[in-house]
Amino acid sequence: MILDGKCPTGPIEKTWDKHRFDMKLVNPANKRKYKIIVVGTGLAGGAAAASLGELGYNVEAFCYQDSPRRAHSIAAQGGINAAKNYPNDGDSIYRLFYDTIKGGDFRAREADVWRLAQVSNNIIDQCVAQGVPFARDYAGYLDNRSFGGAQVSRTFYARGQTGQQLLLGAYSALARQIKAGTVKMFPRTEMLDLIVVDGEAKGITIRDMITGEIRTHVADAVVLCTGGYVNVFYLSTNAMGCSVTAIWKAHKKGAFLANPCYTQIHPTCIPQHGEHQSKLTLMSESLRNDGRCWVPKKHGDHRAPGEIPEEDRDYYLERKYPSFGNLAPRDIASRAAKEQCDDNRGVGPGGRGVYLDFAASIKRLSEDTIRERYGNLFEMYEKITDENAYKVPMRIYPAPHYSMGGLWVDYNCESNVPGLFVLGEANFSVHGANRLGASALMQGLADGYFVIPYTIANYLAKTSPGKVKADNAECKKSVEDVNNNLKRLMSMNGKRTPSDFHRELGKIMWENVGMARSEQSLKTALQEIPKLREEFWKNLKVSGSGADFNQQLENAGRVADFFEFAELMTRDALHRNESCGGHFRVEHQMPDGEAKRDDENYCYVGAWEFKGVDKEPELHKEPLKFDNVHLAIRSYK
């Protein structure tokens, strides 16, 4: 099947405005008749629920945390992009559009990325009006800094806690609607199934994580805003509760999953320091504004960093990519760090680290200036490593961070299942094969504040409100299926915990489907994953019961979904015989080691249809056309 992204035609500068005018509307009095379910309350979900509630729809919002404020968007550090061009350094909507398309290695839709760049400026105005405390310069104007993959300063920030401040802004808007009664909030609930009636998404089945109750919620449309899936690697920068479960359940009910092999490895994380770890800690990319990455020039040089003179240091990003230097895009910077460590020039325990050094910036700007810009990040680093990064360089190493793949959606953010909309990191739409830093917050808020309020009306205007009731046969079947699956997880009484299985799956994925992939490594993973999954369903141990708060049961269900998803992710990486962005196949690289795309054969979105566990999924393609940006070899040199 050739998929239609329903992208508007005509001059790209007018596409979103024309599309908004062409879409159908729901009048204010009729909005009250419709119910919308929003799953997830991060930036995309929180913004969507608040915006839809403000418009007058009845919204039910769900999150597995005890409060919407704990959504993983809170962990974002460095900033949010917008094309306001306050520094007057040459930025524009077109340049943000171009940088994002190029940063994604020409594997994203032009129309979607243009819209993202166009509404980016509205996001900043919205957040300032909410009181988000963006950094300001001496004159009181909003300040900007640089991020990887751009030669302009377009990133708005709040020290190293931008995600937290933006989420509090969205939460304040959401809380207002909860008070007004347009949004009903359901914390501590986990979506375990999508209810599809006559081919349309009409509700979800959830588990109350406190009482264990399984129940359904029906609505006229469902909006998934449940984030990414990189916890398939076990160790990642994501919160431990982040999972693939919501989008995987939707996938098993017919929603296509697009480009699952596109995952982002963040170059600036604190290196793993032991087998006991359950997650990794992000150090914001913004640190590369003032920090310089280097390793010793000599193999196996174990001197303290202060004892290594300048002539014995290799500032490898500045050497390899002089135009962008330490602000090379994430995929390139990550592979470059791995390359140094593989060459026996890494630092720290096991040689799996590189230095991020602030000495030159402190000398040039003063320690107080660096403290003002990044103080909370330095404090966090010291708490974890017991090292003062003002005095000695930070040690960093790449780690799984973000998912560019996700459920396939058209230009309206609607999946191939009518009535199922997908926002933010849970969809595939704008980042291609590599996300530029500070674009995740931009996408989440763009989708939630400025896209879904228009596009969901276009769907609702064509459907009658309240078509499906809670006693529908599909609702009953969904509850039965969820209960049967939970009983199966509880019934084995084996000897291994869910976390034990998850850790082993993560090792398989990191070693074979991680930063570098090969045909052989991917085929190895496709042999090992089913074997481990088979043992999981024979030797799993879940203590407690399903009738109360049970984190082991929650984890078991998420790991079961990761097992099935891991196969699809690996299969997608195997079928794509090219390197692009974060998908690096060692067989497909330039003489200088850069990724080698194959535009003739793989310039498409690969969207997979579920056919059953242990059955070959079916691949559907959406060709990518570039009318405003010419396909070119990506260079940051």
From TrEMBL:
Domain spans labelled FAD-dependent oxidoreductase 2 FAD-binding: 36-441
Domain (Fumarate reductase/succinate dehydrogenase flavoprotein-like C-terminal) ranges: 502-636
Pfam families: FAD_binding_2, Succ_DH_flav_C
Keyword terms of this UniProt record: Coiled coil, Flavoprotein, Oxidoreductase
Cofactors that this protein relies on: FAD
Gene3D superfamilies attached to this UniProt entry: FAD/NAD(P)-binding domain, Fumarate reductase/succinate dehydrogenase flavoprotein-like, C-terminal domain, Succinate dehydrogenase/fumarate reductase flavoprotein, catalytic domain
Stored InterPro entries: FAD-dep_OxRdtase_2_FAD-bd (IPR003953), FAD/NAD-bd_sf (IPR036188), Fum_R/Succ_DH_flav-like_C_sf (IPR037099), Fum_Rdtase/Succ_DH_flav-like_C (IPR015939), SdhA/FrdA/AprA (IPR030664), Succ_DH/Fum_Rdt_flav_su (IPR011280), Succ_DH/fumarate_Rdtase_cat_sf (IPR027477)
Top-rank taxon, per record: Bacteria
Coiled coil: 472-535
PANTHER family: SUCCINATE DEHYDROGENASE 2 FLAVOPROTEIN SUBUNIT (PTHR11632), SUCCINATE DEHYDROGENASE FLAVOPROTEIN SUBUNIT (PTHR11632:SF53)
Full protein name: Succinate dehydrogenase flavoprotein subunit
Taxonomic source organism: Geotalea uraniireducens
